[in-house]
Write a structure and sequence with these properties.
Number of strands: 9
Strand content: 15-25%
Oligomer: single chain
Strand order of the largest sheet: 5-4-1-6-8-7-9
Number of domains: 1
CATH topology: Spore Coat Polysaccharide Biosynthesis Protein SpsA, Chain A
Number of helices: 6
Helix content: 25-40%
CATH superfamily: Spore Coat Polysaccharide Biosynthesis Protein SpsA, Chain A
Shape: globular
Structural class: alpha/beta
Order of helices and strands: EEEHEEHEHEEHHEH
């Protein structure tokens, strides 16, 4: 089955607690004079027609981005899987023709400009239900392509089975590994700690 990018909704996962940054929204920190989230949204919108943000707390802090904001539909900050199932719920209500969602982390300003096309191409080539990005042997579980029809299974796994790890949920379904190993710098670099800002500034300078 061919998957067209118009049938895919991009989901920026911004639901983390940012404990290592002292709390708050990591994605709002500045890098090269712009907020990290500005880079993420720009790249996502260059690749997809529809993009939403998954975030908890007051949604109006993202108001200027003019994107839908979907909070977790399961309690207790259950991790990225909660963001995934919540985004699926948004899609079923607001864009029911969409067949898939594709996720990116809100704190990864350099994710690949061909991320969506490569994920779609390989999931179809490998004929798998799901796809996950990787870089030099390291899986990036927050960067995944998910069929919306798994929403009921995922909700049950979260609420009834207390599943929290992405790979524990995805393993039984078959996952295409989409590698980006040819890139010199890690495209999935994310800002976790205050010192990561300096690393991000260096990487940004090399790209200019």
């Amino acid at each position: 089955m061919l998957i067209d990018s118009s049938e895919v909704v991009g989901v920026i996962l911004a639901g983390g607690l940012a404990r290592r940054m002292g709390g708050g929204d990591k994605s709002m920190l500045k890098l090269g004079g712009r907020r990290i989230l500005d880079y993420v949204i720009e790249s996502a919108q260059n690749q997809l027609e529809t993009v939403i943000i998954n975030a908890n707390g007051a949604p109006d802090r993202f108001a200027e981005f003019n994107l839908p904001v979907q909070a977790d539909i399961v309690p207790d900050f259950a991790g990225p899987l909660a963001g995934v199932v919540s985004a699926m719920a948004w899609v079923k209500q607001n864009k029911p023709t969409a067949t898939h969602i594709i996720t990116v982390a809100a704190d990864t300003p350099f994710f690949p400009t061909d991320y969506v096309t490569r994920m779609l191409a390989l999931i179809q080539l490998k004929q798998q239900r799901l796809a996950c990005a990787s870089y030099q042997g390291r899986t990036q579980p927050v960067f995944g392509l998910w069929p919306v029809d798994l929403s009921d299974d995922l909700y049950k796994a979260l609420v009834e089975d207390d599943v929290r790890k992405v790979d524990r949920f995805t393993a039984p379904y078959g996952v295409a590994d989409v590698t980006f190993d040819e890139l010199e710098d890690n495209p999935f670099f994310n800002v976790n700690k205050p010192e990561d800002i300096a690393i991000g500034e260096q990487q940004l300078a090399q790209q200019r």
